[in-house]
Amino acid sequence: DGRVALVTSAVSDPVDPAPGIHFLLRRWRLVDMVLLLRLLRRLEPEVVNIQYQTAGYRRDLGITLLPWLLKVFLRGALVVATVHEFTSRTFKGRLRLLVSMAGCDRIVVVHRGYVEAVCRLAPWLRGRMSYVPVGANVLPTPVRRERLDRLRDRLGLVPGAPVLCHFGTVREGKGIELLL
What we know:
There is one protein chain. This protein is α/β, with parallel strands linked by helices. The chain is built from seven helices and six strands. The strands form two sheets. Strands 3-4-5-6 form a four-stranded parallel β-sheet. A two-stranded parallel sheet has the order 1-2. Helix 3 (61-73) packs parallel to helix 4 (91-102).
């Protein structure tokens, strides 16, 4: 029985949020992380995936240090970052992101060139990185029922249970409410 919780930026008036979606923080400053860490301790996640998108976090220090805070205050959770932009950032921005990435157990990058760009500055991160293309760039591939059944079995899901991977932002107009 897998559970998924989404924690995202607070909006002024969320439209009938689905269960498991937490519109929590207006800012991602260091002081705001206390509220986030309290919620995460209550949820007891096994994996925390941080979707890095610079503009959404206003370059706040809390989001930069979040992986490190999770290591201290949420021991045992696997910390994963998904990096949507790296080479388009300023040098200072790349350094800020490298601080975050260094605190992660795994790093997903959405552009093949990011692997080499990151490794030029932080070669020790290579073993933690995986390239996963942005969903819009991936053509749908038919999957045999037997393979899906094996995946469900490996994940401990009942036969026929839906398997969903969401890669994106949770906000009005993005369609997540249709999936949930």
